[in-house]
Automatic annotation (TrEMBL):
Keywords: Hydrolase. Gene3D superfamilies: P-loop containing nucleotide triphosphate hydrolases (3.40.50.300). The keyword Hydrolase applies. This is Putative nucleoside triphosphate hydrolase.
Amino acid sequence: MTKPRLTLVRGLPGSGKSTLAKTMNAKHIEADMYFVDRKGEYRFQPRKLKQAHNWCFNQTKKWLNKGADVVVSNTFVEKWEMEPYLLLAKASGFEIDIMVCREDFARYMMCHQIPLKK
């Protein structure tokens, strides 16, 4: 049996992280999901940002431990923000990939209407 794969997608807001993550064959998790209410509306609350990131990490751990491949799309601007995920992968023997989205890539894909996945 193969170990689950964890993919971290990092980049600035609007760089295409979520769009890319949604094309991958993996459980998609991001801190922004914490702020989506039952009606599906996004309601960001700055005071709860730490809770959102804790929720994101705990969801990641839960799904990896169930054997699912997981993709996490957050800004991950600083290396320390990725550290808990890197340590989790190393300690558990999960495969890990890190992808970087750049705004120019997202703009190119949208301008030229190129699908990210066939």
